[in-house]
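Need residues for this backbone.
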């Protein structure tokens, strides 16, 4: 199969297209013929080596976390899916590799593709939607009538998080640039702050939840817009000791995480608010809940650009530049091509 491989860490390096054997399946996995793959900042951070300590991949590795495609092979323990099913997923850590023609996915991480969406639209969803769900629903317990501040509203996570928070009945504030004000308002944002001309700390007060995705300076200011008892969930760090427990970190790494987050945890405690770091996980049952929202027309995908498979490096560069509105997607395969592959596993 064709795949784009990371051979060495670095900011200036590119992925190399090469031929690889089709992945072998575990008993609880399916093999998905990739029709489209979403591109995420996580892919860029793995590429630069930023996550080497918490995600120690053995190079070379195929990048890519989001997939939409068709099942062409299933392990003997798979029960809910069959050959030919159109599915989507966030690939599991250490089984990533959606920048390829085929990728294995655990049954527990899989969901049927939303019926009304194209493969490209579906591939834009899993990682960012699961991130928003796990932050707002699972971690923060966001409720009707509460106020939530979602940073970077025009980004991949932000565009879905705004829609989810409005569905949950929250008042939503967000930041964006001047050119994207109309976009985030159309998604349901109630308070829109142009970060180029306004400081959100001077506008927002007594919020119940903050979803932080920016730098340390923004993180510190975010603590100050929360009311007592509020919750700050950060997807951009710093990782905290609870995260160390979740990944069964070594003693050295646990100590490093404790030190990295000590400042923000101390500030949060002094203000009577909660701080937690979220590194989202693949979760098929949550993705099925998200699918229902798309099927019901409650939320919709926001796709900036679709790149052809051979332009995977250009898609990565576009995401790394930080100007995408919503998601960037790679079209790996034409949905109408070679349907006979469904008749047998490759």
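Answer:
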């Amino acid at each position: 199969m064709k795949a784009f491989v990371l051979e060495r860490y670095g900011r200036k390096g590119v992925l190399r297209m090469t031929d690889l054997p089709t992945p072998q399946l575990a008993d609880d996995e399916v093999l998905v013929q990739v029709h489209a793959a979403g591109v995420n900042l996580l892919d860029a951070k793995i590429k630069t080596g930023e996550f080497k300590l918490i995600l120690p991949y053995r190079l070379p590795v195929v990048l890519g976390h989001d997939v939409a495609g068709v099942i062409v092979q299933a392990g003997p323990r798979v029960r809910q899916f069959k050959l030919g099913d159109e599915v989507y997923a966030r690939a599991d850590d250490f089984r990533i590799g959606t920048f390829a023609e085929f990728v294995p996915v655990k049954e527990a991480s899989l969901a049927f593709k939303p019926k009304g969406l194209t493969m490209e639209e579906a591939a834009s969803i899993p990682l960012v939607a699961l991130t928003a769900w796990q932050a707002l629903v699972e971690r923060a317990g966001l409720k009707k009538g509460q106020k939530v501040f979602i940073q970077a509203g025009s980004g991949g996570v932000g565009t879905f998080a705004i829609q989810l928070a409005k569905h949950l009945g929250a008042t939503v504030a967000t930041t964006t640039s001047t050119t994207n004000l109309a976009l985030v308002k159309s998604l349901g944002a109630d308070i829109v702050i142009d970060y180029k001309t306004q400081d959100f700390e001077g506008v927002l007060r007594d919020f119940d939840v903050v979803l932080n995705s920016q730098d340390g300076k923004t993180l510190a200011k975010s603590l100050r817009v929360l009311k007592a008892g509020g919750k700050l969930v950060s997807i951009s760090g710093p990782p905290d000791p609870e995260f160390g427990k979740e990944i069964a970190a070594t003693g050295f790494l646990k100590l490093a995480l404790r030190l990295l987050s000590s400042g923000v945890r101390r500030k949060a405690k002094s203000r009577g608010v909660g701080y937690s770091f979220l590194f989202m996980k693949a979760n098929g049952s949550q993705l099925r809940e998200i699918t229902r929202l798309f099927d019901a027309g409650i939320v919709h995908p926001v796709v900036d650009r679709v790149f052809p498979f051979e332009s995977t490096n250009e898609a990565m560069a576009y995401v790394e530049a930080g100007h995408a509105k919503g998601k960037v997607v790679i079209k790996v395969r034409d949905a109408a091509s070679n349907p006979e592959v469904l008749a047998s596993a490759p």
